[in-house]
């Protein structure tokens, strides 16, 4: 961890890094670090947030007591989309002076309820849930009513549940499925499949309903396989879809899509020459897979900032509407889709 103290010589490269992160001039960074006047409060806050993001310790005179702890509960770290969300959320919180506390629930490990108890015991001022039990229709929503009863505001990302009174931030799962089906139809595919997670999850249901409707509207033959949101789940589902003659496969996550590509290759099929595969999420490394994956991009940055803003409004005593804020996905065409085989 690097330390930058006022009055000390700061390497130009470090000044440049901080200036680029904060989107200000190096002269402005220097003024903030040395505690000089003439810098707008919002600009000063951006520079301090840039220090935090880049891992530099704030100069002693500029260190402030944390505005409070905010819990972030995510399902796992193996799927790169969750660290991507966590990074943006943590940066946004740091910019407002809050200290994020990350809690990860893994199968066979700490449960969401146990994580929440630990976070509340640590005195968090609010919690952001990412793809948690709120998205699981088989899970009791009572846990969230109890959390509200303890005076802890919270926001949920991905998986709207009308039984839970809270602000929700979601991608448009239906639009994602429709975009993917439309892309395959335009490429001439007539038999298409959807590999998606279990039916108890809201995003899975929404993608399934939209996929089924889009296939019917386009006059295609469609099939759905419900499986796990993992590489192995995508591999198993794609195997079943390929057996039915599907030449285009839409997946509920990029990890599942990687499993689908592997399943096709194990059968001697070329991707995309004989089978087109579309993922969902567009996490950072997906552009570098073999082949680079066509996927439907979640608007991570916009959703993460909306969740943080909603939570801060709640913490500040200005309740946000108990509704779902929906963000539009975007098709990113790369090399895993092509014209249907003749």
Description:
The model is unreliable at 1-10 (pLDDT under 50). The longest helix has 17 residues, at 202-218. This protein is α/β, with parallel strands linked by helices. The chain has eleven helices and 14 strands. Helix content is 41%, strand content 19%. It has helices spanning 12-22, 26-33, 41-54, 81-95, 112-121, 142-149, 173-186, 202-218, 231-243, 254-266, 300-315, and strands spanning 2-3, 56-57, 68-74, 98-104, 126-130, 154-157, 168-171, 191-196, 221-226, 248-251, 276-281, 294-297, 324-327, 330-332. The strands form three sheets. The chain has a six-stranded parallel beta sheet.
In summary, what is this structure?
With 342 residues, the protein is α/β, with parallel strands linked by helices. The chain has helices spanning 12-22, 26-33, 41-54, 81-95, 112-121, 142-149, 173-186, 202-218, 231-243, 254-266, 300-315; strands at 2-3, 56-57, 68-74, 98-104, 126-130, 154-157, 168-171, 191-196, 221-226, 248-251, 276-281, 294-297, 324-327, 330-332. Helix 4 (81-95) packs across helix 11 (300-315).
Task: List its salient traits.
342 residues; 6-stranded parallel beta sheet; 6-stranded mixed beta sheet
Question: What's the topology here?
Answer:
Elements: E1 2-3, H1 12-22, H2 26-33, H3 41-54, E2 56-57, E3 68-74, H4 81-95, E4 98-104, H5 112-121, E5 126-130, H6 142-149, E6 154-157, E7 168-171, H7 173-186, E8 191-196, H8 202-218, E9 221-226, H9 231-243, E10 248-251, H10 254-266, E11 276-281, E12 294-297, H11 300-315, E13 324-327, E14 330-332
Parallel strand pairs: 1-2, 3-4, 3-5, 5-6, 6-7, 7-13, 8-9, 8-10, 10-11, 11-12
Antiparallel strand pairs: 12-14
Helix pairs in contact: 1-2, 1-3, 3-4, 4-11, 7-8, 9-10
